[in-house]
UniProtKB/TrEMBL annotation:
Protein name (database record): histidine kinase
Gene name per UniProt: prsK
A matching Pfam family: GAF
Ranges that cross the membrane: 12-32, 44-64, 70-91, 103-120, 140-161, 173-191, 203-223, 235-261, 267-287
Stretches assigned to the Histidine kinase domain: 493-695
């Protein structure tokens, strides 16, 4: 049997009507001992529930064929009049029936319309009317029902919207139930009027609204009715609202297409197809829009929920993002940025963290490869202000004025942030009154101004993120200390080998005094010396390049001599290019500086293609000479530059000790200089070594001597 068969719909209608009759009768019986909780309308509601139950039974009986249809119409009229009286009694619960003069005439007018409807129904069932007159009577009948349902909905709206705050708990549930009942009837009779016939499929589902009405009337007298609230999740609300929007769009599209088919004349079908094609194309473009989805979420959160955020869901998402591990997991810096960006559906972000000298440097970037971040991303004065106040910066607000609210003169947003139109917000990460990082967020699809709820959530999340970063830094330092312990243990074995060699040489020297004239001893001595020499040279080859970061003596040297010595080391390499540079006088240790530059150039050659040049140059830079080693090799990520490049025992080379870059930086520091690096994956790296000029060193020494004399 087909699903749209009349027998199937009749069976469904009978089953639902009987269910509705049982539900309303059961709620009516349970309402009797608690009828006083319904704001003075308990008795009227009890009577209306039994009328509704009787109406449901009559509809089922008409479907079976045991009673005439006029009985169901009579019961429906009695049901509507009963609920109109309930609404009037609810108005009287707080005295509004005496202050709102139109209420009583409206209720009486709606009851009169119901009586007119009943009269027309009776005439249609008993009088032999022609088809034209019968069709006209049907339209009037439906219009009368529409008038009653619209009037009932208006009364229900005014009942709840105009009540006092104290009266709302008693009125919330019955008004929802009546709104559902009459809203269903409104749609039913609208369809009936437009179609010109009774929609049996839709009418079969009327009892669903009856069951919902009974449920809400039962809630209105429940013991815990004041605590009962509808709390749908944000996901369910968003999906439901999206489906309603899509459904309304489809209904509107079909309605316009139907109108075009009536009004289009000879081109009706062509116009209808053209409209449907255009409307479908617009839907495919607009509905998947991230900006539209963001706007819907913000609108729903603003109007349907007490709070903008579902804090439980946000916390679970945050912990999932931060706690994700495994080989394929993103680095901690990227997870930190993503966890904060997800709060506002921001598509990208940066993490800035204090460098070796305390200045803010790029620590990680997430989905934001195009933004250029300078080596020093923010001044120390601005960092101090953010650390002290925890001020969350809305960059759009800052762009509109010269300074942040209540900011002193030392606070200044970097120009590179203000110049990039995508940058949207800066969130400081403070842990125990110490700034451990800054998160910079890119502008989301639907940007808005921060309010108190955004700021409170950001402060909580930023504190938690800061604790993760601080804990990670502590664990990294502990792991580094453990690696140093392991390295010291290995050095102990090396020292043991050296001690054995020294003992062997001492013994050989003593024996040579006694047996040097013997040929056999001399032969054995040569073998021993050769073996010991090979062992010692192998040991020196392994350890010779890894010193303790100290330099023997600082002296005045010329940069041209240093560049010449480095060039000699790479005279057989076609990749090395020494840029013509000025000859500057600097204060350094020549051997240590050459060792640093040779190491950096060699790393650039190793990281580059065989035909890619590696440039070495030197230029004056204030009080320093700036050596630059520039390559176009594979480059390094911000995560590795910050957490791996200058960490001992971290190496990208197979079999490497991982202390070359660490030692180079320590040697430069020992010469009162500084080593910086800028690198981009796939583009290359630039190492900058700053060494003090001799004039600057002399000036510093003179100032120091004068201070000592004054003291």
């Amino acid at each position: 049997m087909a699903w749209n068969s009349p027998d199937i719909w009749t069976t469904i209608a009978i089953a639902l009507d009987l269910t509705g009759a049982i539900a309303t009768a059961a709620v009516g019986l349970s309402l009797w001992p608690r009828r006083h909780r319904l704001a003075g309308a308990g008795g009227a509601a009890l009577f209306a529930l039994f009328l509704t139950s009787l109406w449901s039974l009559s509809v089922a009986a008409v479907a079976v064929g045991t009673v005439p249809p006029i009985l169901a119409s009579l019961c429906e009229t009695a049901r509507n009049m009963g609920w109109l009286f309930v609404v009037f009694r609810l108005f009287g619960g707080d005295g509004r029936d005496t202050t709102l003069a139109p209420i009583r005439p409206v209720v009486i007018a709606l009851c009169f319309v119901e009586i007119l409807h009943l009269g027309i129904d009776y005439g249609m069932g008993t009088l032999p009317l022609p088809p034209e007159l019968r069709s006209l009577a049907f339209e009037f009948n439906v219009l009368f029902r529409l008038l009653v349902t619209v009037g009932g909905l208006v009364l229900v709206h005014n009942l709840y919207a105009g009540c006092s705050h104290d009266a709302r708990p008693a009125l919330r549930w019955p008004t929802i139930g009546l709104a559902v009942l009459w809203a269903f009837d409104l749609n039913l009779y609208t369809i009936s009027y437009l179609a010109g016939s009774w929609p049996r499929e839709v009418a079969a589902l009327r009892a669903v609204a009856t069951v919902i009405l009974a449920m809400f009337i039962g809630l209105s007298v429940a013991a815990n009715r004041d605590e009962l609230k509808i709390r749908p999740s944000r996901a369910v609300t968003f999906q439901t609202f999206s489906l309603l929007v899509i459904g309304a769009y489809l209904v509107g599209m079909v309605a316009v297409a139907q109108w075009l088919s009536y009004a289009g004349g000879n081109f009706a079908r062509l116009l209808e197809l053209a409209f449907l094609t255009l409307a479908s194309a617009i839907a495919l473009v607009v509905l998947p829009s991230r900006k539209l989805r963001s706007w819907l979420k913000v609108t729903l959160a603003k109007h349907f929920f007490q709070h903008r955020y579902d804090y439980r869901e946000e916390w679970l998402r945050f912990t999932r993002t931060i706690g994700s591990g495994g080989e394929n997991a993103a680095p901690l810096g990227e997870r930190v940025v993503k966890s904060v960006a997800d709060l506002f559906e921001s598509p990208a972000g940066l993490l800035l963290a204090p460098g070796e000298q305390g200045e803010m440097t790029l620590a990680a970037r997430w989905n934001w490869p195009e933004i250029e971040v300078p080596g020093v991303a923010m001044s120390l004065q601005s960092q101090s202000y953010l650390e002290r106040t925890g001020y969350i910066v809305d960059l759009d607000e800052v762009r509109g004025r010269s300074a942040a609210p209540d900011a002193d003169t030392v606070f200044e947003i970097p120009e590179w942030l203000l110049a990039d139109a995508r940058s949207w917000a800066v969130i400081p990460l403070v842990h125990f009154e110490r700034l451990v990082g800054l998160v910079v967020l890119a502008r989301p699809q639907f940007a808005r101004t921060f309010d108190w709820e955004d700021l409170d959530l950001l402060r909580v999340i930023s504190q938690q993120v800061a604790s993760y970063l601080a804990e990670n830094a502590s664990q990294t330092a502990l792991a580094e200390a453990n690696r140093f312990d392991d390295f010291h243990r290995r050095i102990a074995f090396v020292m043991h080998d050296i001690k054995n060699l020294a003992s062997q040489f001492s013994l050989l020297a003593r024996n040579a005094e006694l047996h040097a004239d013997k040929p056999a001893f001399r032969a054995d001595m040569l073998v021993t010396l050769r073996n010991s020499s090979e062992k010692l040279n192998a040991l020196i080859a392994r350890l010779g390049r890894y010193g303790n970061g100290a330099v023997e003596k600082l002296e005045n040297i010329r940069t041209r001599d240093v560049l010449a010595a480095v060039g000699t080391s790479f005279e057989n390499s076609a990749q090395f290019v020494a840029v013509d540079s000025p000859d500057l006088a600097i204060t350094a240790n020549r051997h240590s500086l050459e060792q640093v530059l040779v190491h950096l150039v060699q790393n650039g050659i190793d990281a580059s293609d065989p035909h890619s040049p590696v440039f070495l140059s030197v230029v004056p830079d204030g009080l320093h000479a700036r050596f630059e080693v520039l390559d176009s090799g594979c480059g390094m990520s911000a995560e590795f530059v910050r957490n791996g490049l200058f960490k001992p025992f971290v190496s990208t080379k197979s079999g490497g000790f991982g202390i070359g870059a660490y030692e180079a930086r320590e040697l430069v520091r020992a010469m009162r200089g500084r080593l910086d690096v800028e690198s981009r994956e796939g583009l290359g790296s630039r190492f900058v070594v700053r060494i003090p000029l001799s004039e600057a060193t002399n000036l510093y020494q003179n100032l120091t001597k004068n201070d000592q004399k004054v003291a």
